[in-house]
Amino acid sequence: MNAQSSLFDGDFSALTRRLQDDAAGVWAVHDRACERFEAGEEVYLLSVGDPDLATPPRVVQAGIDALHKGRTHYAPGRGERHLRETIAGIETRASGKPCDPDEVVVFPGATNAIYSVLACLVDPGDEVVVAEPMYIGYEGIFRALNISKAGFALDADAGFAFRLEAVKAAITERTRVVFINTPGNPAGNMIGESELRELAAFCRERNIWLVCDEVYSMITFDGPHVSLRRAAAQLDNVVVIDGLSKSHAMTGWRLGWTVSSRLLADRLLDFTSSTIFGCCQFVQDAAAFALTNDEEYIQGVREEYRVRRDYVCQRVTAIAGLSCDVPPAGMFVMIDVGELGVDGEQFADQLLAAEGVSVLPGIGFGENCRWHVRVSLAQPISVLRPAFDRIARFVAP
Ligand SMILES: Cc1ncc(COP(=O)(O)O)c(C=O)c1O
């Protein structure tokens, strides 16, 4: 039979179809900018969330050494013991509460950790309560798992502050998980210790899981990050997710983890054993090295992003029609463009077309960011300076 005579007519799964119309539109400006950049045009990419900083050379060397030692085989499903001990030690010190290495599960990145946690906790049709604005990446996970999202608004008039009452009001009988992110993407907002404690207790009383994405925990400028584990009085309904992508500029290594009750960690092991089957040994060795030899490096990273944050905020403030809150943490600044009479999407489109600067429209993160654009700090001042010269020229030609 001629193999080309008929087209294969197999259908895709419902999951695949749900993902097909994922939030791709949000990235349209960024994708266009990347195309122009790759074609050799002078384009300033302020839309990326991937640190421009290099993975620390000593960490790279630790990975190479591990490869040479033959650390290229299957790893334990929970993660290598020495990495989990390192993470448990950090958690114990940060929270003031003992963390057992068996409460830690290692994943190829925080994204996979979030997917796995929600897959273990939520059935299709159940509700996850989540902040708006939220990190765009959550959307695909919710869709894949067929989870309903119930948003609660961060206070856009107060630097996107977290309001406990707003979360409580969003919880219904169908709520299985409250999902929070501190420090937050895109707004860099931080949730305070007393609010975390009260929320944890509130959720526990109602048999609701409280999951906290803390991947920006090490990038704080004005005061230390408070982890959910530190704040919560009881830990059995609490899950913390963290990783090395942002703090150690290791996005491509794919390394994240969860800290939860032993009970959930065992279920996560079942799940990851049938979906991932262990993370790379040499990546885990490099990760353990990174986490034990990083104090000076992290201080330097924090200082670098703080300088960039201050620079961006000062440039924004100097441009009539633009304004921003100064984020206390994270890798982004949200700029309010509403006074110019355009929304974030129009601003981003026109800015790219006119000046070759790409920023992300706020609407992708939530309705209450319609009038904002997100600028990434993952570019050096040598890029931010000419980019903001162009933004200034675009706003006031
Ligand atoms: C809030 C948040 N969580 C998770 C991730 C993804 O982290 P990872 O690279 O470890 O999958 C990102 C990446 O931008 C993020 O901003």
Automatic annotation (TrEMBL):
Q: Which residues form the Aminotransferase class I/classII large domain?
A: 43-379
Keyword Transferase on entry: yes
Query: Which Gene3D superfamilies does UniProt cross-reference here?
Result: Aspartate Aminotransferase, domain 1, Type I PLP-dependent aspartate aminotransferase-like (Major domain)
Family statement drawn from the similarity comment of this UniProt entry: Belongs to the class-I pyridoxal-phosphate-dependent aminotransferase family.
EC number(s) reported in the record: 2.6.1.-
Organism lineage: Bacteria, Pseudomonadati, Pseudomonadota, Gammaproteobacteria, Cellvibrionales
* One matching Pfam family: Aminotran_1_2
Keyword annotations from UniProtKB, A to Z: Aminotransferase, Pyridoxal phosphate, Transferase
PANTHER family in the record, alphabetically? ASPARTATE AMINOTRANSFERASE (PTHR46383)
- One annotated GO molecular function: transaminase activity
Q: What class of enzyme is it?
A: transferase
**What protein is this chain from?**
Aminotransferase
Q: Which cofactors is this protein said to need?
A: pyridoxal 5'-phosphate
Give TM regions: none
